[in-house]
Amino acid sequence: MFSLIMAATMLVVVFAIAALFTFSSFMASDMQGTKRLSFIVLLWLYGAYRSYRLYVLIKNLKNNET
Predict the structure, then answer these.
(1) All structural domains of the chain with their residue ranges
(2) Contact indicator for 50, 14 with CB cutoff of 8 Å
(3) Which end of the chain offers a freer environment for a tag, N or C, measured as fewer CB atoms within 10 Å?
């Protein structure tokens, strides 16, 4: 159960940071152009990966309960 809470928290944090970089000018002076865009894409892809891992974790927890 603890791993489920940690995985969900990590997912929320990753998507929050990705949204922060996507929809604001946060750290725009340090990260510009292609560097910023590639970082944003990387964050969204990592969030998608973490979503899949959370799905697998929930699926495994349900299978272990029965």
Answers:
(1) 2-65
(2) yes
(3) C
